[in-house]
Design a protein that fits this description.
alpha/beta; 12 strands; globular; binds pyridoxal-5'-phosphate
């Protein structure tokens, strides 16, 4: 490994197999939704052992369609985390419903808090969107119980969790992302997994203008005309992306396993050399290993730490600036108190993680991080955890 090579945050993993798959689609002469999209949907549904899959243009589209298909609209409230990517919240806004932001459990467990969610319920609450932060699985049975007890729909933002078998098993819909920085990619792309076939049909119809048949069905003579049965969208994916998705899906489980191994290496190396930096969740928490998030000591200046890492050719990022602090949402919602989310949002740092990293890379990143910290940093005391 060259000393000055760049340690990338999480580049897409693309090669000859992807090139071949794209060429095959171009040579086939059919580039919009067709057999490859169907094959991609069925391979994804098999992997997660959930009956119904609908491939779409992004996870944002997947979340929006899930909410619309479930009938979420104006006058409804939807519980959401603020510690997430903004799309989780924007898609609730797109339906005309009101997002109600919920705090996280603690600064080392940035999952949406059930206890805080209880306090945010009103008679207008209709759904809850949970997000598997970093690919670390939320407690799905606890959230299913919560949703059932209060008559809510349960939707998973599973953008970080592709390949984890438990996703979509107990929720009403789960949305996945194949954006370039996710565990598998189609450049842009997403998927909805659903247990209910009727709901899946609704999502499938809404994906393409609310139309009852697709272009391929008409070309092949399976359908003569079409009706429009709802006010739909153009959230379609295409054959090129589906072909990429099929190739990437084949490698997803191996990649996820490699990611988890590298996370274990980070955990051990950080604990041994840099205890002032805390890792998140427990060592054995089930995860897809989407990112490598850490919590910096309170005294550290994150901007300075990131600049020092960059000077060592190490990329880093923040997951996430809390949504309730973005000006659009702050103006709309006013001052709301999400103390754990704020504390975590101020101290979180994401280190490089992708299947191509080796032990030397991990050591190099941790060493650079240690040198980037102020001289006297105390170990983070982890709050009481179960
Ligand atoms: C990436 C991401 C999204 C959006 O995914 P797109 O496919 O880019 O629309 C939504 N939620 C979370 C948590 C994400 O990380």
């Amino acid at each position: 490994m060259a000393k000055n090579s760049i340690v990338e945050l999480g580049p897409p993993n693309l090669g000859q197999a992807e090139k071949d798959a794209l060429c095959e689609v171009i040579e086939s002469g059919w580039i919009t939704m067709g057999d490859r999209v169907k094959a991609f949907e069925s391979a994804f549904s098999d992997m997660h052992d959930v009956e119904n899959a609908v491939a779409v243009s992004s996870a944002t589209a997947a979340l929006h369609l899930s909410l619309v298909a479930l009938g979420i609209g104006p006058r409804d409230e939807v519980l959401v985390p603020s510690m997430t990517f903004v799309a989780t919240v924007n898609t609730v806004m797109h339906t005309g419903a009101t997002p109600v932001m919920v705090d996280i459990e603690s600064v080392t467990r940035p999952h949406m808090s059930l206890a805080d969610a209880e306090t945010k319920l009103t008679e207008r609450s209709r759904a809850v969107v949970i997000m598997h932060y970093g690919g670390y699985m939320m407690d799905l049975s606890a959230w299913r119980d919560f949703a059932d007890k209060h008559g809510l729909f349960l939707i998973e933002d599973a953008a970080h969790a592709a390949g984890i078998a438990d996703t979509a098993r107990s929720s009403d819909a789960a949305a996945f992302s194949f954006f370039a920085n996710k565990n598998m990619t189609t450049a842009e792309g997403g998927m909805v997994l659903l247990r209910d076939a009727d709901l899946a049909d609704r999502v499938r119809t809404l994906r393409s203008h609310g139309m009852t048949s697709g272009t391929l069905d008409r070309v092949r003579g399976r359908a003569v005309g079409y009706d429009v049965v709802g006010c739909g969208y153009n959230y379609r994916i295409d054959e090129l992306r589906a072909a990429l998705g099929l190739v990437q899906l084949d490698r997803l489980q191996d990649w996820n396993a490699q990611r988890v191994k590298i996370i274990d290496d980070y955990r051990m190396t950080l604990a041994a050399t840099t205890p002032a930096v805390a890792t998140l969740f427990d060592d054995d928490h089930v995860t897809s290993g989407h990112i490598m998030p850490v919590l910096l000591p309170a005294q550290a200046d994150r901007t300075d730490v990131m600049a020092r890492l960059k000077a060592e050719f190490i990329q880093s990022s923040v997951h996430y600036p809390p949504v309730h602090r973005f000006s659009y949402f702050a103006d709309m919602l006013g001052e709301i108190a999400l103390p754990h989310t704020d504390a975590f949002g101020a101290r979180q740092l994401t280190l490089p993680l992708h299947p191509g990293l080796n032990h030397d890379d991990v050591v190099r990143v941790v060493k650079a991080l240690k040198h980037a910290l102020p001289d006297r940093c105390e170990a983070v005391s982890r709050p009481e955890e179960d």
